[in-house]
Design a protein that fits this description.
The chain is mostly helical. It has two helices and no strands. The chain has helices at about 5-10, 20-65. The longest helix is centred in the middle third of the chain and has 46 residues, at about 20-65. It is rod-shaped and about 75 Å long.
Length: about 70
């Protein structure tokens, strides 16, 4: 299945995909999920680092006030 065929493929109750087509569709969906998860992980850990740095700054400021 070419990329163009894949992009234009639509499930149809009258025509089931071949095993090859179904495998390619599933692999493409899995790749999209992996990419979404990777981006989500990057965003999560960036936010975690930011929050950690902010907490460290607050801790250093509070220690300096004592």
């Amino acid at each position: 299945m070419t990329q163009a065929e894949f992009q234009s493929y639509r499930f149809d109750a009258r025509h089931e995909p071949s095993d090859e087509q179904l495998g390619q569709l599933m692999e493409n969906a899995a790749e999209k999920v992996r990419e979404t998860n990777r981006k989500s992980d990057e965003k999560f850990f960036a936010e975690l680092r930011r929050a950690s740095d902010e907490a460290k700054k607050r801790g250093a400021t509070q220690s300096g006030n004592k």
